[in-house]
């Protein structure tokens, strides 16, 4: 049995958060252990999603914890976003304490794979759609702050620097 661990969350300005993650080409014990750690680390009050690079691993995988459903996906790719927009406050474990209005699609669908190499589809609206987009951004080396309107982003960066 692979040991699971609650992993430490990397926070800005850690460069791993700005580095695009590598595709998973082989599901081995390292990847199984990563998924176990992602699932255990996201299973905590107030956590909606967690990307592998947020725990220092440069592989394309994330977990989610939305409405009492915990799951994961390897090599996710966004394949569909609705034209309908949601505009709510968004935060990030890697940018602690800062919440800003962030525009996201109301519906999102990602395709990826599970630990057995099977193709899976994960989709949702509202918070689940926001999570899918947010975590996929992480895997591309992007933070939600990058999506903010210019004036709001300037304010957010100022607040972020004040916390460092």
From TrEMBL:
Residues binding Fe cation: 92, 134, 138
Entry annotation: catalytic residues: 135
Broadest EC class assigned to this enzyme: hydrolase
Keywords (A to Z) from UniProt: Hydrolase, Iron, Metal-binding, Protein biosynthesis
Catalyses which reaction(s): N-terminal N-formyl-L-methionyl-[peptide] + H2O = N-terminal L-methionyl-[peptide] + formate
Required co-factors: Fe(2+)
Gene Ontology biological-process annotations: translation
Keyword field contains Disulfide bond: no
Pfam families recorded: Pep_deformylase
Family matches, as PANTHER family: PEPTIDE DEFORMYLASE, PEPTIDE DEFORMYLASE, MITOCHONDRIAL
Similarity remark: Belongs to the polypeptide deformylase family.
Role played: Removes the formyl group from the N-terminal Met of newly synthesized proteins. Requires at least a dipeptide for an efficient rate of reaction. N-terminal L-methionine is a prerequisite for activity but the enzyme has broad specificity at other positions.
Protein's UniProt name: Peptide deformylase
């Amino acid at each position: 049995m692979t040991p699971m661990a609650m992993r430490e969350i990397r926070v800005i300005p850690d460069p791993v958060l700005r580095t695009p993650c590598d595709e998973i080409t082989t599901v081995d014990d390292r990847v199984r252990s990563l998924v176990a750690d992602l699932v255990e680390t996201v299973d905590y009050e107030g956590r909606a999603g967690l990307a592998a690079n947020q725990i220092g691993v440069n592989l394309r995988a994330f977990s989610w914890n939305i409405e009492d459903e915990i799951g994961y996906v390897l090599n996710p790719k966004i394949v569909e976003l609705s034209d309908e927009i949601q505009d709510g406050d968004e935060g990030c474990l890697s940018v602690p304490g800062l919440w800003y209005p962030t525009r996201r699609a109301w519906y999102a669908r990602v395709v990826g794979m599970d630990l057995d190499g099977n193709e899976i589809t994960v989709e949702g609206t509202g918070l689940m759609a926001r999570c899918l987009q947010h975590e996929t951004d992480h895997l591309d080396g992007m933070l939600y702050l990058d999506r903010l309107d210019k004036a709001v982003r300037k304010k957010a960066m100022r607040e972020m620097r004040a916390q460092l």
